[in-house]
Amino acid sequence: MAQDSAQQAPPAAPARALLPTIVPALLVGVVTSLVLVGVGTAAEELQDVLWQDVPDALGVGGYSVPWMFVMLIATGIVVGLVVWKVPGHAGPDPATTGLDARVLPPAVLPGLVLATAFMLAGGPSLGPENPIIAVNVSLAVRAGLKAFPQTRERGWVVLAEAGTIGALFGTPVAAALVISEALAGQRIKGQLWDSLFAPLTAAGAGALTVALVSEPSFDLHLPPLGRPGWGDLLASLVVAPVGAVLGLCAVYAFPFVHGAFGRLRHPMLMLPAGGVVLGALAALGGHLTLFKGLDEIAVLARDPDGWSAGEFATMTVVKLAALLVAASCGFRGGRIFPSVFVGTALGLCAHALVPGVHPAVGVSAGVLGVLLAITRQGWVSLFVAAVLVASPSVIALLCIASLPAWLLVTGRPYMQLRADGTAVR
Considering only CA atoms, which of 368, 370, 378 is closest in space to residue 410? Predict the structure, then answer.
């Protein structure tokens, strides 16, 4: 039997076929990570000016309710101007885009970078992943096909996606999981690791480059879990499905909210209107519900007992609503990072309600459930949930908790729309 299986296995690619891919993959990985770091750094500098320097000079609180309204509406106006006036209109409708980016014309890229940087600095609840992947994919395809005309476009797309994902999450493992999931059900030449060889090279280069020029870390430094018990298993089995149901609420509302903003028809109406709604949500949920959410979850994790269950619940719902509005009204950005905040706040709410729920279990299970509903990508959801708490013992709990959560989300839509505004399943 083993011999028959070995005979049926696809032949491995020879080393001479893989070696020529190393240098291009390394170059793509380094460049994609530098683009990510460059846009992120510029956005952080602008954020400091807008949310600290300017309000300090005016003598108003940087996170006072009036200033949050002013900034979010102003961000909507500025991004609306970019979408309206800059050539290429900052790319396609962001509600229709995901991690698997399409190749965009070169004229679109400057506007997309500007819209993304202004969004990140201004406070809407979206992350950089979707637009930065789209920029990197377009640059890699254009440069790669020009340098190597005989190569295929899809190969450069995969390298750019892998390099950017490796840089985003600080490890090539994330890229390997995303690509493996994308390859599932496809006919590939050779063995799986032959197909992953060049993308892993690009992802490793991207992750190492970011590690050298910045300090990426997803570890929230929550109290370590230690040996899990039956109570931890029960908590994960409850929190993860609750997170999935919460995420599905946003998913099913997505086409309707997107359609409501779409009736305004013009970016100079849609985006400022979105800014008004986001300002109201920020006034309700507080300043921690602003921005992509990665720095903000670190604040929550430093003091898991610093807020009441009601406050955590409010932040959970407000952040999810802010993600829904920002993704619907035209802001350029991704949905993974704010979903992580939603899951983190949900997990800490569970801990506040039932102190026996370990913070690491609550957070990881909450993030797992929300991400499964928003992205319907099992490996990415498991990886992000596990890496946040850095407790190896939590992985077994998450694998089990993913089963009921997956039963809830499988076959249902996720948070992405088709060009006609209908949900993608």
Answer: 378
